[in-house]
Amino acid sequence: MMPDSAKRKTINPRFAEQRADEAVLVETRRHFWVFLRSAWLPMLLLAALLLAATQVQAAALKLGLLGLALLLPGAVLVYLIMEWRNDSVIVTDQRIIRINRKLLTMQRHIAQIGMESVHEINIEIPAGDIFARLLRYGTVIVKTAGAQGNMKLELMPTPERLQRLVLETRKGYAEQQAQRHGQMVRAEMQRWLSGDVTEDDLRAQMASNQPLQPLRGSNGYLSARIEMSNGDIVYRKHISVWFRHTTIPLAIMLISLAGLVLTFAVVAPDMRIVTFPIAMLALLVSGLAYYWLDWDWRNDIYILSDDTITLVHKRPFFLQNLRDQILIERIDNVESSMSGFISALLQVGDVRMSLVGADEPKLFTRVHKPAQIQQEISRRQHNKARRRAHYDAMQQRQILGEYLTVANGAAHAANPAAAAQRELPSSSASNSDCNRPPRLPRKLTTGQSAANTDSSLTKLDKPRPPRFRS
Q: Which CATH class is domain 225-382?
């Protein structure tokens, strides 16, 4: 069963990516020993500065050393405790999320695993670390179907409790999915009995008639995110990649154009024979390089749909055309990462996807807002699982409907009289002869009653025979 805390739907302000139907079970971070084992350096610096202050006779120098003893170790301690608090592990009733952030290098790494992908949870206690047993911390390893998708949570407090929580949540998630599947099957059977058309059928019919058109993000020449009318999203690499590749060809093109202008405006006629070919050659080469690099950036795309993710890598003039397509339900682990001040300022990073049974992960490299792409992939995974469960319920509905139809046909062939009687229950129910008391005349129809009345009148006109008594 699901833990009691899962029934209380709470929203954590720091958990901005929380789904509408998702409950946060626990939010924790690494053991406090992570901070303490790094705090010895500022404490040693504090002791050294205090010792130096006691040995100095000048009042101004002593005051300066005391100020440094408070400021420098204090600043280092504040930085260390902020680094410790920046890292967190979040367990919900649907997934496990690990967030690692570093202040100095501006790094941010987010990894998440769905509960349906969790296959095994192991605990490792370092054998030579005596503090691990005294302070009760260890490493929790969450394993999935693929080795690339495993998640390693180091220096976690009370790892046994975290392991038990994840196992119980995984079991409760499976039971909840089974209950939801049963509800879907019953709902589909009711729709089938009532003859209603499901919403998915209507949506599929509507989607099949709609042409594929870009909706948003396609107006700009350098758009890195394009939304299509069928719900697909096309991603390109960040615009900074385009600028970095095309800056030199564009500069050479501008210099070549300026050289051509100066050739006919300033240069002497006898020197134009030299300057004109050089300027034209530079213009042609730089234009070709710009076309090549621009075409390469524009056609290296990542297409995210409801069912698949497609990675397209093209080169101009048909020199290379790679198209890699993966099923979205085969993704075990999705990670996003940013590193460096410039990357954090421009929000440029990578998205890493670990697949079931694959040795190499799939990458979205140098994309804009990688955390949002990660959440979009996770959301589509969640919706795909729901649609799959709905599709399975519809399949079972169809199988049960066909079985009931065959069973009714077999019963009709075995006993047609009983089947006909079951098919016409109104005729027997409306027949009043079944409930007629004895010696009560049977109810006649209009034609029969008129005929009997005429026959009785003709009988009255005839003389009655005399009665004889013995």
A: mainly beta
**Residue keyed to tokens 């879907």:** 184
How does pLDDT run along the chain (470 residues), one tens digit per residue?
444 444 454 545 455 567 777 888 999 999 999 999 989 889 998 999 888 888 888 888 888 888 888 899 999 999 999 999 989 999 999 999 999 999 888 899 999 999 989 999 999 998 888 999 999 999 999 999 877 889 999 999 999 999 999 999 999 988 888 888 788 778 777 777 776 655 555 455 444 444 555 555 555 678 899 998 888 999 999 999 999 999 999 999 999 999 999 888 888 888 888 889 999 999 999 999 999 999 999 999 999 999 999 999 988 877 778 899 999 999 989 999 999 999 999 999 999 999 988 888 999 999 999 999 999 999 999 889 888 888 887 787 778 777 777 777 776 677 666 555 555 544 444 444 545 455 445 544 444 444 444 444 444 444 555 544 44
Q: Is the pTM of this model over 0.70?
A: yes
Using CA atoms, how far residue 470 sits from 464, 467, in Å, is 19, 10
* DSSP state at residue 24: E
CA distance linking residue 100 with residue 89, whole number of Å: 9
| Host H or E run for residue 468 | none
- Whole-angstrom Cα distance, residue 171 to residue 329? 20
Residue boundaries of the structural domains of the chain? 32-86, 225-382
Radius of gyration of the chain (CA): 40
- Paired with 266 in beta bridges are none
The answer to whether the beta carbons of residues 106 and 336 sit under 8 Å apart is no
Describe the strand order of the beta sheet including 151-157 as a list of residue ranges.
120-124, 137-143, 151-157
CA distance 140 to 156: 7
Measured CA to CA, the distance from residue 106 to residue 84 in angstroms comes to 14
CA distance 310 to 328: 10
Q: Look up residue 292 and give its two tokens.
A: 């090549």
